[in-house]
Amino acid sequence: MHAVTSLSMVSLLSFGYLSMDWIKPNQVEEHTQNDASITFAPKQPPHIIFILTDDQGFNDIGYHNPDIRTPTLDKLAAEGVKLENYYVQPICTPSRSQLITGRYQIHTGLQHSIIRPRQPNCLPLDMTTLPQRLQEAGYATHMVGKWHLGFYRKECLPTRRGFHSYFGSLTGSVDYYTYGSCDGPGLCGYDLHEGETVAWGRGGKFSTHLYTQRVRKILSTHDPSRQPLFMFLSLQAVHTPLQSPKAYIYPYRGMGNVARRKYAAMVSIVDEAVRNVTYALRKYGYYRNSVLIFSTDNGAQPFTGGSNWPLRGRKGTYWEGGIRGVGFVHSPLLRHKRRVSKALLHITDWYPTLVGLAGGNVSQTEGLDGYNVWPTISEGRESPRLEILHNIDPLHRRSGLASGSGQQAQHVWDTSVQAAIRVGDWKLLTGDPGHGDWVPPQVLANFPGSWWNLERNTEGTGKSVWLFNITGDPYERSDMAVQRPDVVKKLLERLAYYNCTAVPVRFPTDDPRANPDRNGGAWVPWVGGDEDEPKWNGVYKKGRNKKKKKCKLCKLRSFFKKLNTRIMSNRI
């Protein structure tokens, strides 16, 4: 009864958000944002260090799971502010684009999938980025690590988008030692860059160590008393491939699952990297006037060692396991430290928050979806954010649904479209949210199938609408779509509102000119500055106009591929 009563109270309180005007943008009175950016900025602009990890799950940090050894991260988080209601995007490019622009994917054209190495696509060139705004505020801006925001022409490169220096990889996944990156069989190339040139001959050193070494070099050569610094350390770890020096694997030798063992070792290397960076901040005089932000870019992939337990889903899905991010802020400038924040925050909020801290004018950038949340983080004030559009992907539709399926009968929203939104305590998903199982930590060598089946999602494939009270049900186990059609309708109206503001999808077909074999063996820009931009019509046609030839062998291969996937899923 206690639990039911609590849930009912939460539902009643959260329904207050549903009485707002659903035709207007979210959320709070204007003076709250304006006052925040003026009142709470430090007298001297702080040094900003933003550390972004790749594919680190909710259960892959020590203060959520003691099996993972991250003493440095645990200490920094404990002394700062842990962000326990913080959201990112489910995959790489979307999270990075929203961090750099402060805009939802639907407002950049990157609402579908990631930017692949051979696609003539990148972060829209007409948008002012976070580092560009910080440069205008007098900052030295440096980036080290993974870019993954497109590089088909030189104008897309980090050094053209606001960073004074860049050292790292442009694609989404590289070998940690050789820096080779592949986009299919036989389409491999070298991907380590220094500024706008290929950094040949740097292979052999583990990338997390190499990137940390570069950050420390920048910190040692910059004068913190003369110019504020923005350091964006975008680590490749803990993305696949699962690679780690053996010395880091040994402490996890008790883990029977080999993938989990290697993954945990890679997390420990990240912890060591952060320890070395924070040591350098103290040694070279940055620390007392610094703000350090730690964040993952999306949830983990359980089948390659990661864990989002007890959250539902995984990387690439709009369940909480794909988008609830690990994050914290550590800074001597925080007014209320050593606490846990349950305030609703999103990765788009870093843009106006950091520009505000730098003393910049956020109002110069129109169309931001983020909010200045520094008073929320530092003072413990209420978050100005009451809702998050997780995404609307018009190119991802759930097949097998009737034209009037689900709530579409209300003439509000086509529920076959993949979309997700959070408003107050409520979260709505439509279409195909992705793999929806609850995956326990895979620490055993042979994971028992009976355990797996206890957490298997058994909902029918014809379903296209889900509703959860995330505050009362953070693990998304009680779908309330049937019980609360009024809430469903309101959230569908919000999706329809946001969809009216969306720009066409940017997802062009692969360009054969990108092949590293044509470019000296490396992934580099391949389109000249005088060539016209692709025309974005919002529809990515995968050869639909071409007649497909019947191929019995192709059908046979497809059958065995699906069969193998099912077998592997059952075994795991």
TrEMBL record:
Question: Matching SUPFAM superfamilies, A to Z?
Answer: Alkaline phosphatase-like
Under the heading CDD domains, the entry gives: 4-S
Which cofactors are named for this entry? Ca(2+)
- Is Glycoprotein among this UniProt entry's keywords? yes
Sulfatase N-terminal domain span: 46-359
Sorted keywords for this record are:
Calcium, Glycoprotein, Hydrolase, Metal-binding, Signal
**Superkingdom, natural source:** Eukaryota
Signal peptide start-end: 1-20
Q: Name one GO molecular function term.
A: sulfuric ester hydrolase activity
Q: Which family does it belong to?
A: Belongs to the sulfatase family.
Name listed for the protein in its UniProt record:
Sulfatase N-terminal domain-containing protein
